[in-house]
Every structure is written in structure tokens, then in C-alpha cells.
Predict the structure.
Amino acid sequence: MAFWIASSPHNHNHTKTPNLMRLVMYATLPGVLAQWYFFGWGNLIHIGLAMTTALLCEYTVLSLRKKPITHELLDGSGLLTALLLGICLPALAPWWISVIGTMFAIVIAKQLYGGLGHNPFNPAMVGYVMLLVSFPLQMTQWQPPLSLVTVDLNFINTLTTIFTGFTIDGYSVEQVRTTIDGITMATPLDTLKTNISLGLTVLESISNPVFGNNFSLGWEWVNAGFLLGGLFLISKKAIAWQTPVSFLLSLFICSLIGFSLSPDSSASTMFHWFSGATMLGAFFILTDPVSGATSNRGRFIVGLLAGLLVYLIRTTGGYPDGVAFAVLLCNMSAPLIDQYTRPRTYGHLKGDK
Amino acid sequence: MSNEIAPQQSHDVENADEQALLTQASAASAARKAEYKELAIQGLWKNNPGLVQLLGLCPLLAVTSTVTNALGLGLATLLVLICSNITVSAIRRWVPKEIRIPIFVLIIAAFVTCVQLIMNAFTYGIYQSLGIFLPLIVTNCAIIGRAEAYASKNPVGKSAFDGLMMGLGFTIILLLLGVIREVLGQGTIFDGANLLFGDWASVLRIEVMQLDSQFLLAILPPGAFIAMGILIALKNAIDNHIKAKKVVHTEQVIERVRVNFDS
């Protein structure tokens, strides 16, 4: 009898891919519900569209590649990609935005590289960045929170806006985004950026209704929802805590430095935490086990880098939010970071090869 | 007798010689035909400078955002490639091996200057939209590669044909990329063809589909890379398909009775 000698890890918990993907999808629920409560049906419709497209695309590519279709189609990774992309899109974007984005994410960013486990970049973020670069107009038409919208955005109205560009009463997306005063509302991050470039101070711009009473109306609760889901994932050990903690820490430190140097022209630390895609990126995007770093120290470094990049893009870059770009840049550098943060092999001394 | 026979014989010999010459000539012409055919296949498909050698990627990816630009650059490259191949081949006996590369570059630069001046004079619009990529033809590896690898070792006729085929292969890939990117990006084909061919060519413009908003990715450089990758994949798929069709199963399965200790 011979001992079967296997390499580490020796401790398996036998979690299958579909189970993990389902868990992550459940964990997005608080955030998605908050999004539904504050911004209406738009994102849910986009998630549905994206999921349908993802299944169709994956089915086509898998049958072209002669792969086991049911096994790979139902592992949930494509659906999760579609879900994340649907969450990121502006609620009233036209329907083809989510269709094209998902097609690009599934076919080019995932399947052309070899399918799940072989993609160097996070597919949802590749799709998002492709959309943002290709269709800047549609991708920046963010819908303000429902409480600020004068048009009644119920399910039917949202549906017709997404598919035809107009509500039933004939309001266009531009009109929906316009206040009674005739000013187009944007996201808090966008508003802040524009105001600072116009020479206003942070305090002056925070009086804008999109900021609400705390940090940013609606967005803070969406982010809190994703924070809750992320903590649930960490407690279930579905994701490593290093990435989100170091990411949030890095963003906190960067914004703290900015805020203490010039409080008039930089937003508070909590504003950076609870607006835009911060929490979604921290817990659901950066922690992607395929495209992120794999060692614990590597995850820590990736998180730090991502936080710094997000802060730099938000304050000095051309786009109001930079989570997607930061994630892609970090994915690019993850293999290199992994190379230099290889954990010490058990029984070897430090620096011993 | 012998006297009578001799001329006959010699005549026969002459005949035989003639026949031999004829067969030789026909064999030579067949060989030449085969060689030209091979040159064409190499240039257009097997060794296509755009798809297989991946030479001259810089202009290939940069200017193919519209069909007109692609065609303009393709024609310019084709002309320069033929002329430089002919010249390099014609002076190949007198060029010292040690300094051949600078001489090739000088020759190519001379022709590029000619083409650039001609385009500046007659097709000013396309000259402007091609910008720096027109003079950059000098550094196009496809051209100097053909000069070095083929024209400097082969006679003028073959070199000219090789230049024509390689240039055509390059132009076809440029055009394909241009069509893909222009249709996806703007929904048109031959937008601005009048810049290249004169005013009558504005009728060439085809509106394939009406797009409310441009698909910027197709027009931006990443779109060129993605389209190029898909074209290469398509070529490889076709090659594999042809290969799979050609394979004839000649191996005979020999069945042997295996004798194992278990049995």
C-alpha cells in the first residue's frame, strides 16, 4: 500500500461553484432591494435583461466550443456576471446597453479567454468599461432617487422608458432627470466633481438635494445594503476579508489626507465610502477569486492599490467614479503581485526558495 | 548510305533536341506558373502580411476606422511595395551585403515620399486624415521584410509579382477591418470616399444601418485589436477545417492478441 501524496491545501470544504455563486447572488439582495426602493424598477429590469442575454450567449458559445452545456451554463458564474453588470448600469439606460454589455462580458471577456477560471479580467467590469467608453452619453444618464423625480416612475413607465426612451406620458429620460427648476440632476459624485471644477466649495454643493441629509440620498443606503451583504459573505467565508478591508482602509486614508489638507475642495471620508460603487466594488467585484490576487498579502496589496486608484480617479480623473477602472488595473497587476507575495512554504525558512 | 542517313540522323537529333527544348520550355513555364501561383497563395493567404506575419500592425490598427482611410493606406502601401521590390531586385547584384538595410530604407523612403507628394496633390482630404501614418509606411516591416527576404534574392519579374500579392493581401485585410469597424462604429461603408476618388465617389457611400449613437469602441483602437483577433481566429478556423478535410485515414488498425499474465 502506498500513501497518496497530494499537494496542499489538504483541507477541503467541498463547496461547489454553483453553491458559491448562489451565495454571492443572495448576498447582493440587500443592496439590490435598496436600489429598488430608492431608484425604482430600472435596475431590476436591466438585471433581468442581462441575465437572459448571458444565458443565451453562454449557450451559443458553449455549443460552439463543444463544451458540456448544462454543466457550465448552470454554474451560475454567467448569471452572477449579468447580475453585477445590471446593478452597475444607470437605471433608465436603453435596453440595448445591458444586452451589448453582457454579450461583450460573456463572449469576449469570459469565454474567449477560456471560460470560468481563465479570464484575466472581471467580466462584469470589462462589460461596464466597454459600455462607458463606447456610449458615454447613455452611460452617464443617471436617474436621481425617486423622491426627487417629478414623474411617477412605476414599473410600466420604467419599462417603456428603457425600451422606447419615453414614459407612457411621453417624458424623455432627460425630462425625468430634470428638476422642477429645470436643472438636470446627476449622481452626488458627479455633482460634486462639477461643482468643485466650477469653484464651489464642498459645503456649498452639499446643499444640492441629491446629497440628501447625510452623504448622498439613496446611494448611502444602497452602499449600506452591499456592505451588509459583504459582511454576510465574509462571515460565510465565501470571500477573503483582506481585500475589502484594505480597499476601504486605503480609500479612507486617501480621503482623510485630502480632507485634512483642503476641506473645502475634497469630500469627507464617509462620502467616499457611501457613494458610487464603493461597497459593491469592495465586497463583490474586487473579491472575484479568478481575476484577483490569490495570496493573503497579495489581496491586501491589491485592495490598497484599488483604494488609491479609486480616490485618484474620483478626484483628479476624467470620470466621476473609478471603481471599474481601478478593478481592471488591479486585475492587470494581480499576477505580478502574486509573484512577489508567495507565501512561505511550510517548513521552509523566510527567503528560502 | 551513311551519307544519306547522317543528315536524317542529325535531323532526328535536331528534332529530339527541339523536342527536348520544347519539353524543357514547357516544363520551365509550368514551373514558373507554379511558382507564381505559390507566390500568390503565399501573399494572399498562407503568409498574409496582416494576418500571419502580423507586420505593419501600427498602420493596420490605426487607420482602419473607415473603409476610405483603409483603402487609401492600402493602395499607398501596395504601390510602395511593388516599386521597392522592383528596385531592390534590380540592383541586388551591386548592393554590398553589409549596408543593404540602409540602402533598402533609402529606396523605400524615396518611393514613400513620391506617394506622399502625389496624395498631397491629388487626394488632399485622405492625405490629411491618414496623417503621420502615410510617411510611416517607410518603417512598415512588411515592406522591408519583403525587400530583405524575397526581392534581394530573386529576379525583377518575380519580385514585382511578390510585391503585388503581398500588397494585395495587406490591402484586403485593411479593407476587411475597415468594413467591420465602420459598419459597427457608424453604420456606413465608404463614408467620405469622395476624399479618395473625387466627387463622383460620394455615391459609393452605403448606409448599412441607422445608428442613434456611435459604437465608439469599434472606432477606437481596442476595437481594431478585437476585430483583428477575430479575423485571425477565423483564418485559423478555416485552415483547420481544410486540414481536417484533407486528412485521409491510411493507418491500418492491426489487432494483436495481447498476452497478459493476468489472463
